[in-house]
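Page 47, continued from p. 46.
Same chain as before, 289 aa.
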Amino acid sequence: MGKKKKDKQKQREGEAQASPAVARQEAGAGPPPKMKRKEYERQMRVLHGELVAMQEWVKDSGAKICIVFEGRDTAGKGGTIKRITERVSPRVFRVVALPAPTEREKSQMYIQRYVTHLPAAGEVVIFDRSWYNRAGVEPVMGFCTPAETDRFLELVPGVEKAMADNGILLLKYWLEVSPEEQTRRLESRINDPRKIWKLSPMDLRSYSRWYDYSRARDAMFEATDTAWAPWYIADADDKKRARLNIISHLLGQIPYKPLAHRDIRLPKRRPPGGYQQPDLPLRHIPAPF
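Result:
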């Protein structure tokens, strides 16, 4: 990595992370207070600019980036993915959130339906839950047998090694949330009509199985945390800090180059050439605001 790249990365990390709250935490004064919206948006603006620079590098270099988000229910996977993708092109950043498998898919090799969604050159694919369902929700909720999970954990490091050997940069994030914060978030879904759609019967069934999920998570880490595809853990009790930390870390894992400044000027509009607005019976929407 060249000096300019190092300086740019240090600048980005300082802008996106350096704050009194983080310094307080590093000094051993306990967890920082919840981040304020204004500070959060200021830091996010910097990171969004870097994500655009990363996007342009991915397009230009033909890189293949695959990002996996896993974690407990309510950990904030969907919100983090939204902040990553809201300022970039959906033609480059593609989000994959597969529904329950069909009967045909159930008869396939387990990872088969995920492989078709892996990135091609110039793409960033984000999995909102992934093949790791077989290591988490499926065994905990009884959707697969212990033998099927054991077999998956045995095979998946080799599959991910094949992905790495074929030029895919695989980043795996686990969002961790405390039991108290999970309870608070689920209760907010119950009481907020804007969030009730997020509360599925599966959430309610899985809520009581906290320690079953903990055991499944630990087994998954032990079997699949490899040199070519390590797991990265994010404390997600504070959603704002978690999103900033994850995006900053993600950017640090990808060897993109900053965008060169372009001097862009709008061209002059052509003259109307006799054009006149036609008198058509068009339907304009009401404007109560």
